[in-house]
Amino acid sequence: MRQLVLTLTIAATAALGACTKTGDGQYQVKTPAVSVGTNTTTVSTPTVGTKTDTINTPVVGTKKDTLVVDRPVVGTKKTEVKVPTVNAPKNP
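Above: the chain sequence. Below: its structure as tokens.
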């Protein structure tokens, strides 16, 4: 079990050491080439943002029906919610 953890730790360290950040949302990744040496590839990460949508949410209340009883009433109202958006990166 310890040997497996040690192997995974070494693999993760090697994978993280092969990446360098070059700009806002861009990384250079070095991979082994078919021949001797390495290939360098620039990878862009996706951007995550939010947008506002309007949805109808249920509203439950009461309404006077007679002098003695309040009758339940169901309706809707518009509510604004923020939902996440993911934009795919544009690789050159």
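The chain has a mean pLDDT of 76.
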